[in-house]
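#struct-pred
JK: can someone run the complex with NAP? inputs below
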Amino acid sequence: MSDGRVILITGAGRGIGAAVARRLAAPGRLLALNYLSRRDSAQAVARDVEAKGGRGLLLPADVTSASAVEDMFAALAERAGRLDVLISNAGAPFRYGRLPECSPADFEAQWRVQAGAAFLCCRAAVPLLKKSPAGRIVFVVSNVAQGAPPAFMAHYVSAKYALWGLAQALKAELSGKGIRVDCVFPPMTRTDFIKNFPRPIVEAAREASPGGRLPAPEETAAEIARVVEAET
Ligand SMILES: NC(=O)c1ccc[n+]([C@@H]2O[C@H](COP(=O)([O-])OP(=O)(O)OC[C@H]3O[C@@H](n4cnc5c(N)ncnc54)[C@H](OP(=O)(O)O)[C@@H]3O)[C@@H](O)[C@H]2O)c1
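RT: done, structure tokens with the ligand placed:
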């Protein structure tokens, strides 16, 4: 669809975020691609966006840093002049384990990269989104925050619930301002994120998945893109 929208995706260099960028790319659209450190991978995503007629804008930034996030949105405002959709997706892998193995640093790291980063990005994005005719924020949560969560990932599960809570709070705050807030709850997906998960955990998720296979990032991205494209 050629609608001239500017869409910023955090963690767009690899995995689900990269697949969402490729899926949403269209002539006239600008995909702002945030990543942390893997520039080559993000550059490949930008090339694919441009091959589909869109524009790819690389925005390296650590989304857990308030100043880096502010600089990123200032660069976006300068180079794109607007923002229509923020997809808060960045996530960092975690060590799977029981409570005694989950250090305070592990716990804090998950809260910072999930709820903390989403808070910082929304705070910086809202002034731009308010100027859009159809501003949107989409939070990439996880199916671990739906129903009974899996055991041994208290840091990740609690951070995802915090992310969901932030989304509910912003929904209430922004509904009168023309900004729509949605959450998506992807299932376990075949990305680097699960590379170090214990094999039995991955196998159990695979067996519970439709067709006995874990979705590829492109399949999970299709659902996120459906939410982004949905009429307001
Ligand atoms: N994979 C799953 O099974 C699954 C299931 C449900 C939900 N999710 C959620 O989906 C999201 C994406 O997961 P994924 O599987 O695509 O992960 P992934 O393949 O590990 O990719 C993570 C992306 O986030 C970026 N990133 C990490 N820390 C960052 C930071 N501090 N600042 C900016 N960017 C940062 C990485 O940048 P670099 O490339 O530069 O390192 C990378 O582009 C996460 O929120 C995750 O919780 C994943």
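RT: quick notes.
Residues 10-11, 13-17, 34-38, 41, 62-64, 89-93, 113, 140, 142, 186, 188-189, 191-194 surround NAP (CB under 6 Å).
The longest helix spans residues 104-129.
JK: thanks, will look after standup
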